[in-house]
Structures are given as C-alpha cells and as structure tokens.
# Entry
Amino acid sequence: MVESTLICGVDEAGRGPLAGPVYAAAVILDSERPIPGVADSKSLTEVRRGRIALAVKARSLCWAVAHASVEEIDQLNILQATLLAMRRAVQALTMVPNEVLIDGLHCPGLPLPMRAIVRGDATVSVIAAASILAKTERDAEMRRLHERFPNYGFDRHKGYPTAAHIEALRRYGACEVHRRTFAPVGRILRMA
# Structure
C-alpha cells in the first residue's frame, strides 16, 4: 500500500497592522473531502470566510493556528515573529507533513521539506485554506481586543493603519497591544 503524501499549507495574517498579534495557520487538506470556495482570504467576504473556515476545520485531515505576541513582534521584528508563528502552527499539527508550502518569500526553518511560494494564497488551495484560518482567527482576536480597548475601533479595522485608527492613536495614545516598533506608533509615543 502506498502512503499518501501529506502536503501542509501555511499562511499568516496580521503582518501590516499597528496592533495585535500576528497569526499563522497550518492545514493539511483531505483529498477525499474537497471544500468548495477555498480561495485567498482577502478575496472573500467576512461571512463567506467564516463559513469556509468552519468547513476547513471540519474536513481537513488536521489544522492548527498559532500566533506571536505583540511583545515578540517588538522584540524580534515582524518577519521573525511571523516565521515564529508559522513554526508554532506547523509544530502544533497532529500529523507530520511530507512537505510544507508557505505563502511568501521565506520559510520558517523547520526540519521538513519546505517551499515558499509567492502569492501561494491565490494559487495553491492548501495555502488558501491556511490563509482563511489565520485571517478568521486573527479577526476574532481583534474583536476580543476591541472589548478591552473600545476607543481604538479594533473591531472595524483590525489594527490596520486606517485614518480612524491613526486618529484614535493621536487622541488616546498607544495601548498595551500596539506594536511600539512600528513607525506610526513610535511617532505617537515620541510626541506624548
């Protein structure tokens, strides 16, 4: 009997925001249980993303989501923190993949065969599935953070540098979940 090849897709969510952790997801899809509608998370509406995320969790062979904290982002830099979150996600899988396909330019440094694929979230379904899980889990965390810090509007912009977020930063200063090493936050802190 020939053992099937386990291909893991990995993607992140939250590299660009000024606040909150960076998330990564790792997914091994089940070829016997296809999931209609899997696409790059950025191309899906929030409602559709949520529905497909539930299907990915229910029909995949295994999946895991992990994050790197704001403190780790500020200590390591966003690229290294992203790679850390990716390593954590792959290591949390209940199965060991034969190959790991990562969206982007960089591999997270694991003792497994890996390939970085630019725009992989738009071209490789297993990476797209990971992008959906990373995005939905991070968005849920930003909604939770909004409950703690309602002045910033995290439930709407998810920490990205929108005009409303920059205005809230100017008005209220940075809170504990803002990334101090990101230029707009640093400028606000220096002005305080």
Summary: The two ends are 67 Å apart (CA to CA). The mean pLDDT is 95. The chain is about 45% helix and 15% strand.
